[in-house]
Amino acid sequence: MKKNSLLLIAILLMLNAAYAQEVVKLYPDKAPGSESWNWKEQDLGGGYLRDVVDPTLTIFRPEHPNGIAVVVAPGGAYHFLVSKGEGADVAKRLNEKGITAFVLKYRLVHEDPAHPYLNKMLQEADWKLLEKITTPVLPLMTEDALTAMKYVRQHAAEFKIDANKIGFEGSSAGGTLAISLISVANDETRPNFIACFYPYAGGLLADKKVPAVQTPIFISSAIDDQLIPINHSIQLASKWLEAKQPVEIHIYQKGNHGFVGNPPQNSPVDKWFDRLSDWIFMLYPQTK
Prior knowledge:
The protein contains eight helices and eleven strands. By secondary structure, the protein is an alpha/beta fold. The protein has one domain: Rossmann fold (3-Layer(aba) Sandwich), CATH 3.40.50.1820. An eight-stranded mixed sheet has the order 1-4-7-5-8-9-10-11, sandwiched between helices. The protein has a three-stranded antiparallel sheet with strand order 2-3-6. Strand 2 (about 40-45) and strand 3 form a beta hairpin.
């Protein structure tokens, strides 16, 4: 009986190891620029994090890698990370297509619990306040994204990735991060393509330039988005077109904000992942 119990425990441990995701710290010590942060990360449950101070990459390996990789940046209004719906769930769907995925946990704005403001700010769409609060932290988020890209490219062979087929996908605030990243990246840290879902493209990105190196962009939003107006996506696409860069944009009549992480809505927006993967495989056709 004892031997059977030990065998069962050993099997369960092996299964847990097989399904456990690898997590890599982006910095060996405290993240540069935020050494004085004295708050702790909070797991709010339901796939939501806040107060991230220790950036990481969680690696999702497909069974049959096809050489393409995507760094996934969840959204969350710069104060939260929708780490499941816009992170792990997206990574798993990419794995189903043979794409290796890396979910980025990046640093966030800290909201003083004694003086909460986020809900009111979002309800009133006070973009000026959002920009004021986020501007000091955006460079730190961007450094996390740059470091993540550098790590993935340097370890491409280990993950069976083509170093010239590495993309960066972001939802909402993650989309803002994608644009900030691409505007300052060099050859080592630049994504080969980016995808932005319902991105905020306002004053935070006013000084961000389209890269001179060809970088295809995929943009997807819904007209009934009650948080970020559709014109942000249109302006972003226009900016890329003016720079003679490749653009694909999908605008849905219905879908609202956050459709990447939301349950199916029985409408065309439910096919957002199919449109994304179709586009990726247009860039990198697969041979059978």
